[in-house]
Specification:
It is a single chain. By secondary structure, the chain is α/β, with parallel strands linked by helices. The chain has 2 domains: 182 residues, D-Maltodextrin-Binding Protein, domain 2, CATH 3.40.190; 134 residues, Periplasmic binding protein-like II (D-Maltodextrin-Binding Protein, domain 2, 3-Layer(aba) Sandwich). It is built from 14 helices and 11 strands. Helix 2 packs antiparallel against helix 12 and helix 10 packs across helix 14.
Amino acid sequence: MQWMLRTTYGLIAAWFMLSSASAQPAASVAEHFRGKTIKLMIATGTGGAYGGYALVFAQHFGKHVPGEPAITPEYRPGAGGVVAANYLYNVAPKDGTTIAVIAHDLALHSHLGHNPNIQFDFQKFIWLGSSSSFADDAYLLIVRPDAVVKSVEDARRPGGPPLLVAASTGGAGTGDTTTLIREALGFNLKPVTGYRGSSDMFLAIDRNEADGRFTALSVLQATRPGWLKQGAMRVLFQFARATRHPLLADVPTARELAQSDIARALIELAEIPYFIDRPFAAPPGLPADRAKALQDAFVATHQDARYLDEARKLMIDVSPVDAEGVRRAIERIQAAPAAALDHMRKLLANRGSE
């Protein structure tokens, strides 16, 4: 009997020790974040879609992080998102108090190695997840109805007038898409660069400085819903989709318009980053327990009924992927056909100033 009691007491003591050890990391993480502020950097200028996602996320994320820290958004635009990504990777404290929503196309640019200003390895960030996988979205080329170019045929006509496309500062993002579409689809596009964000590019169309722009369907629904009405704006094609969006059943996809295998491969390669359309990250070197806490909080935020309700009211596409989903998208880029990667690298490296 005494032997059984000693064994039982020993098992109970061991259980308490294991329970205490397993609870310790969670308690430590909560103590670390309690009373602190997490800076959420936004890699674009004010008024853009990245900011819209980040501002809603910031209102709900903190309550899901152990210790419930405050969340403070901070805009850090520049060079198509490179400024923010460089800072997060090389300068930001590696303690979980700085995170960022990063430009999704940097997943491709980092791998291609054509941009000497990129001072980070995209796959080495600590990924929290992405708020959107573009499952219910589409990237569109919209054109003013009074523009000379009114159709795909007009855009492809040899010697025809160029379509003036508003593009972001530094030529990244929208500028890169313009370059890609000229090459892959044969469109006569001319970027009008220098706009700091989405709002400025919309104003460029309003002021007739540009004939059109590339933008997401969700951005139009949230900020310019009137432009989706019949005749208000033409949509020449939709990008980042294998099939046509149900709301745009009469608008061809970029894949449909590709006229060669290499053109289709370029399109499909460029579309991969849209499956992690709003990626959130922490710097490399973050302790594993804090990384896990932030990743779990990211998932919990995107299941939060209040967050989802607010996102729905703002017409934000919430189709999240977790940290593993982001890593899989990065692996898809790395596994893309060598010919497509090499062609894209040369295309973007030779873009120059336009």
